[in-house]
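= Tokenised fold =
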Amino acid sequence: MSVASRNVAGATRGSHGFRGSHGDGDPAAAGRKRATGRRGIRIGPVGIRFRPRAVLVALVLLASWTAVGAIGMFTGTLDFPHERVWATLLGEGSRIENLVLLDGRLARVALGALVGLLLGISGALTQTLTRNPIASPDILGVTAGAGLFAVVVVAHPAALSEVGIPARVGLPTAAVVGAAATTGLILALSWRAGFDGFRLVLVGLGVNATAIAGTSWLLTRATLEEAAIAQRWLTGSLDGAEPADLWIAAPFAVLGMVACVRQASSLHAIRLGRELAAGLGARPPVVEASALAVAVVLAAAATAVAGPIGFVAFVAPQAAMRLFGTAGPPPLAAGLTGALLVTAADLTAQRLPVEVPVGVVTAVIGAPALLLLLARYARRLSG
């Protein structure tokens, strides 16, 4: 078996937990699929193949998220009887119960899941494109760029009112523009006739440091109140989550999931390298550009509603890859893992003796994971 054949076989064996493919109607291919013992369904041009391990892990993650979400709904500073929580969820709550349980706890749990989903998918896409486990949006500086532009809006709210833009619309818009501008700068500085994962990470780290420095300078120029608001937002927090935030994040979550299903086969081929992917029928420039655009938009949307929650986009894809037993970061599985990670981290942040922003908890989890990964790569290079 040739090297290329072994690569293809290995990558196919470790495919996404949810894999899309175009129908071919080939009886031989159908026979090969039956020979693998895997089951699947086909909806139009998209086929989804199930692996027992992926299904089992996905069910465990969903059950875990449901348990964490239930704890978040049924417990809190104000104590409500369980029957009143159920009645409120069924639309029979009083005004106070609706305010605390639906607009407060339920919105926070749901927003945490959506933000984790967005960051997980975004991180898996960037790590797949660069074939580098460190290349997540928060490490490369994409979220730092979004935060820089958002702090400009927070520190100068009068600029929005002068042009007639509400702050709730201006902040997400600034985050998306900042993420796009930062990504464009990173690509312009690192592009040398194609992507190079190592060069991209080095440039991204430099841009990340520059964006953080710019944010710090803006904070020194802001008033004490504006700096306090901006600093809390920059830490990444779900405190103050509102149902309106769900309407901002939900469409992007749907966009990300649909894009991942549609591009599953192409992303799978990209992991093997641009030349081999082109030989397999994929169009690397188109796949890379579209997947990168999706990753940037998802990271910007998550940052816009909750601030730059660090390390989720880095940890979730790597954890999902190991849990699901795949050869690379599986985007949808990474999104599911990210949803559980952010929801559990936010619940932990609320239950500490002194409540802290969720970004502090994810940093405590993610920083050792980053150091461990760097140490493993250093040992591999030296060995």
In short: The longest helix spans residues 95-130.
